[in-house]
Automatic annotation (TrEMBL):
Its cofactor is thiamine diphosphate. This is 2-hydroxyacyl-CoA lyase. It catalyses: 2-hydroxyoctadecanoyl-CoA = heptadecanal + formyl-CoA; a 2-hydroxy-3-methyl fatty acyl-CoA = a 2-methyl-branched fatty aldehyde + formyl-CoA; an (R)-2-hydroxy-long-chain-fatty acyl-CoA = a long-chain fatty aldehyde + formyl-CoA. Its EC number is 4.1.2.63. InterPro entries: DHS-like_NAD/FAD-binding_dom, HACL1-like, THDP-binding, Thiamin_PyroP_enz_cen_dom, TPP_enzyme_TPP-bd. It is an enzyme of class 4 (lyase). It comes from Sparus aurata. Residues 261-418 form the Thiamine pyrophosphate enzyme TPP-binding domain.
């Protein structure tokens, strides 16, 4: 059970403890709510007194129609959403993807339902896959802003959507589906799989579509690699994530929030197992990360002695929203590893010298660009203040060594404050730059 420390829940918490329920007291109700929601997602336990709903399958006629639309597709794409993770569809889905030979793309929290390094994963060619697909099998994902509403200019205007969802109200949101398959995702994927087995159908790997996707994946990988291998100090996002990804255990649970930090981290940090990624998700709410990490660490600690590693990758702004929860981590000895990717701001910041120059020019409340945070703030000292490990990191060597020490420590949490280039950016994105202070050459990104 998650709540806050003290008034007004003292009696409830004590009663819960007396009944053998573990009570995690957090610093803010908001973080406690995030934590409770994450436990439901990670464990699949229904935390209510309602009976478990029956599993519903799709209409067989609709399955036949879906298979015929898929067979006619020239450029098919499977999109795996977090509904597939929540519905525990991974085993059937893996067999379906491998039998049918279809390319797939995970949504942020659909990552890991099938491993990111699966040969059919086309995440590294995401934009092209979305834009050019003529048939999309949408599995437990919603056509909201994260999938650009399923509309042009990011989708083909004539795309046919085969929509699989548990929720009838979701059918036809933003795009009218060619086929609607209503029901339990695991059951429906199993139905589709049975039909693929019967027909012995497979989408050929020798198609223009597969070659186009593979070419794009290779080109994008080359660009990311070039950025990742840069050894300049301060580091850029890609260098940080490249080295982090080399050291993380494949079964770790990755929690993430931020803007660039979350977006770039999503492309660079692989997930290999379902329900091993928790991020700001559909609502993009900053502040969820530490609550999610505490939930995951608590679940892991209760189910076996050590459990799996929880790694929490935070933008410096994102960290600030619930940063005081490091005290909760220290209080319960939850060995979470927090990596704050610190660019002194939101999307970008300014360096300490520029900040000092600005301060000399007048009142910072009228001068400082509204995307900036205090340069080189010592978030690592927030962790050491409560007895956890804190590291200030500027170089690749410092990063690797601090991360290794943190991963070897199962007794207490760590925080790596990774100072990166405040103007480090995403590769090849289309931005509109608005110059807010010519004199300081500070760009505010809007997109
Ligand atoms: C509760 C809430 N408030 C504000 C926002 C707007 N917002 C989007 S991303 C972000 C922070 C991004 O900065 P940071 O975490 O430092 O990541 P960076 O892009 O700098 O790597 C904010 C405040 C939000 N998403 N949620
Ligand atoms: Mg930042």
């Amino acid at each position: 059970m998650f709540g806050i420390v003290g008034v007004p829940i003292i009696e409830v918490a004590m009663a819960a403890q007396a009944a053998g329920i573990r009570y995690v007291g957090m610093r803010n109700e908001q973080a406690a709510c995030y934590a409770a929601s994450a436990v439901g997602y990670l464990t699949g336990r229904v935390l209510s007194c309602c009976p478990t709903p029956p599993v519903s399958v799709a209409d067989q006629g609709a399955i036949t129609e879906a298979i015929s639309v898929l067979k006619e597709a020239k450029r098919p794409l499977v999109i795996i959403g977090k509904g597939a993770a929540y519905g525990r569809a991974e085993t059937a889905l893996r067999e379906f993807v491998e039998m049918s030979g279809l390319p797939f793309l995970p949504t942020p929290m659909g990552k890991g339902v099938l491993p990111d390094d699966h040969p059919n994963c086309v995440a590294a060619a995401r934009s092209r896959a979305l834009l050019q697909a003529d048939v999309v099998l949408l599995l437990g994902a919603r056509l909201n802003w994260m999938l650009h509403f399923g509309l042009p200019p990011r989708f083909n205007p004539d795309v046919k959507i085969i929509q699989v969802d548990l929720c009838a109200e979701e059918m036809g949101n933003n795009v009218r589906p060619a086929v609607a398959l209503l029901g339990d995702i695991n059951a429906i994927v199993t139905q589709l799989l049975e039909r693929v087995h019967e027909d012995g159908w497979k989408y050929s790997s020798d198609t223009e579509w597969w070659s186009a996707l593979k070419d794009k994946i290779a080109a994008n990988a080359k660009i990311s690699k070039a950025l990742a291998l840069q050894s300049t100090v301060p580091m850029n996002y890609y260098t940080v994530f490249h080295h982090v990804s080399q050291l993380l255990p494949p079964d770790c649970i990755i929690v993430s929030e931020g803007a660039n930090t979350m977006d770039i981290g999503r492309t660079m940090l692989n997930n290999y197992l379902p329900r091993h990624r928790l991020d700001a998700g559909t609502f993009g709410t900053m502040g969820v990360g530490l609550g999610f990490a505490i939930a995951a660490a608590t679940v892991e600690k209760s189910e076996n002695s050590k459990g799996q590693r929880i790694v929490c990758v935070e933008g410096d702004s994102a960290f600030g929203f619930s940063g005081m929860e490091v005290e909760t981590m220290c209080r319960y000895n939850l060995p979470v590893v927090i990596i704050v990717v610190n660019n002194n701001g939101i999307y970008s910041g300014v360096d300490p010298e520029t900040w000092k120059e600005m301060a000399k020019m007048g009142d910072l409340t009228s001068i400082a660009p509204p995307v900036t945070l205090l340069p080189e703030a010592r978030y690592d000292e927030v962790m050491t203040a409560f007895g956890g490990r804190g590291f200030l990191v500027r170089t690749v060597e410092e990063l690797r060594s601090a991360l290794q020490i943190s991963l070897d420590d199962w007794e207490r949490p760590s925080l790596l404050n990774v100072l990166i280039d405040p103007s480090s950016d995403r590769k090849q994105q289309v931005y509109i730059y608005v110059l807010v202070r010519k004199v300081h050459n500070v760009a505010l990104q809007l997109y």
